[in-house]
Amino acid sequence: MLGAAPIWEVAERQSTSHHHHHQEVWPSILSNSDRQSQSRSLQAVLHGCSNVSSWQGPTKFVSHPTQLPAEQSSLFDQVQGKKVSPAVWGCRVQTVLPPSRNKRYDALSLSVRCNSSGTQSERAVEIEHQKSGQLEGAKRRVVFLGTPEVAAGVLRRLLEEAAKENSLFEITAVVSQPAAKQGRGRKLLPSSVSALALESGLPEDRLLCPDTAREEAFLERLSDLAPDLCVTAAYGNILPNKFLAIPRCGTLNIHPSLLPLYRGASPVQRAIEAGEKVTGVTVAFTVRAMDAGPVLAQEEVEVDPNIKAPELLEYLFRRGTDLLLRNLPSVFDGTAAERATEQDHAKKTEAPKVRIEEGNLDFEQPASVLHNKVRAFAGWPGTKATFYIRSDGSEESEPVTVKVITTRVVEGEGAEGDSKEVTLSKTGLRVTCVDGSILEIQELQPPSKKPMRGRDFWNGLRGRRLYRGEVEAKIPY
Q1: Which of 11, 382, 415, 448 has the fewest CB neighbours in a 10 Å radius?
Q2: Which domain of life is it from (predicted)?
Q3: Are strands 452-453 and 106-116 parallel, antiparallel or unpaired?
Q4: Please, what are the domains in the chain?
Q5: H or E segment at 21?
Q6: What is the tens place of the pLDDT at every residue in 151-198?
Q7: What are the φ/ψ torsions at residue 434 (nearest 5 degrees)?
Q8: Closest CA to 403 of 356, 353, 369
């Protein structure tokens, strides 16, 4: 027996040809357990042949309907019944792996060359491949790609599901960005996804950290792993066509927006910045263009007016993982690709990467705009505002730049005129913007200090006044 348990095997069938009945044994295609290479791992055996002289592949995979057409059946009878027999001197089988994606059924294309009675004939026979998901005990091979902590949450859930006895899949490998310098000490540390993968017991040679997904050594290693599916979540590298051609069932991405809205690197930040009341998560097939692939599933989510980007991002990826898991059976049997819908590209919006300078707050803008920025840019890059501290009767003011952490818009209240002086309420510092709207700063962080409540910052002023901009000194008469 060549290889492990059959990966492609077609059972016996009964047929009637030329008014006589006989049993036919269809060819079985056997593979080693790893299917490590398209061109090296397959072994072909033709039952009833005295000699399989050579196997050459891969060639081309052919989609096939559920049953062999009548004309193909007749052709198969001719080849299988008489010529492919113990009397045959030899035959050559050509086939390929992996199956064509986006099709419910796969077929093996066999080119059988037979010598019989001194006459050489060649026939091409298409054999139906069993519907994916019906192969007993064969778990689908999934490769996960992700980098930050939020992606580690997705991987953790997938590992938990893969460990279940009745799971359809296993995590064959994990791909993440290389270790990077982090923190104040600038130590070289692995990504959150890499750390979790190793903690979970994944062999080190199954954790791949290429600088880019275009590296030939990486693509060759991925091809050797022969994944059925790749899943990406905040990976951070562009995937080339060579990559996308490798997984049998394609590559699925969990994207935290309602595509085609907010395509790009910062969908959650940009949605919050824009004040969206509804957003969502999408599971979509990956194509070469960014976030432009067919949509498999989507879920809408209402956006709390005070939620910050890191919380919403984590929540959307959690919902997206549930969405992915619910759809995996149809992904593996091919029906998901058939029902995935193209995006309306005319409605696309962009979500470009956030720049550090975008975190500066300008009180020339309305309070609602500033509040959305504070929420959107929480974590990184954060938001900063400059205030001016002044003692009564002094002609000089002292600037102080603080990190603004938590805010709210004071509804139903507004100041008349352009009041630059900051006041104190029971819950925080109140700043009047140019249009009269009021932003309340509930939590902030002064330079070289820990985060604190707005009231605690106010108490530290010790009677000095606070302004949102420079003011002229009041000259006592």
Answers
A1: 448
A2: Eukaryota
A3: unpaired
A4: 8-128 (no CATH), 140-347 (3.40.50.170), 356-467 (3.10.25.10)
A5: strand 20-24
A6: 999 999 999 999 999 999 999 999 999 999 887 778 899 999 999 999
A7: -60, -35
A8: 356
